[in-house]
Design goal:
disordered N terminus, 5-stranded mixed sheet, 5-stranded antiparallel sheet, globular
Length: 186
């Protein structure tokens, strides 16, 4: 049996619920890659006019400390929900884009910057649900949880950084923070 240490006090449980992903709500954390709304991007017809290229849809930022851009496929199994959030990660040397290879929603948990050395808490976290036709490009140094897929195994095209340097930092999440299961289809 463990006993609380002097000064320890029970922390309240916080349950995060997902809100719809939008460019405005996500701007502090990165860019939304919305395949349903590509207006405003330069368009050109290529391949004998059969293909429309939407040019420069998001910004890849991977060259710090001699890095290079790589493309990978991440195959992720569903995370049982509700899920207790214990650790978040960030990449100080490069952005990281996740583009779904299907049309099913997934969850994106991100965290705001904290004071140096300060722990992440529920107050720093924001949870979003995609439309299924949206991906995200996380800015350098954006705290995030790994992919949170719903229902079945999913594949993502991931564009991020390879190379030397310390490009992974982790932080424990203080308190009892849970991701709630989204309501409705998913």
């Amino acid at each position: 049996m463990t006993h609380p240490m002097a000064g320890d006090r029970p922390r309240p449980k916080t349950e995060l619920t997902a809100r719809p992903l939008s460019a405005a709500a996500f701007a502090d954390f990165g860019e939304v890659i919305d395949l349903n709304d590509l207006r405003g991007f330069a368009q050109m017809r290529i391949n004998d006019g059969l293909t429309t290229r939407f040019h420069d849809v998001f910004s890849i930022d991977t060259l710090d400390a001699g890095g290079r851009t790589v493309a990978s496929v991440f195959r992720t199994r569903p995370l049982p929900l509700p899920h207790r959030v214990r650790v978040m990660e960030r990449h100080p040397l490069g952005s990281q884009a996740f583009i779904p290879m299907d049309n099913l929603p997934f969850l994106v948990l991100v965290g705001a910057e904290t004071s140096p050395g300060a722990p992440l808490t529920a107050a720093h976290l924001s949870l979003f649900i995609t439309s299924g036709r949206q991906g995200v490009n996380l800015h350098k140094n954006t705290w995030h949880h790994f992919q949170i897929v719903l229902g079945r195994q999913r594949d993502f095209l991931v564009i991020d950084r390879a190379g030397g340097g310390g490009n992974l930092e982790e932080s424990r999440v203080e308190g009892e923070v849970w991701i709630a299961a989204p309501q409705g289809p998913g």
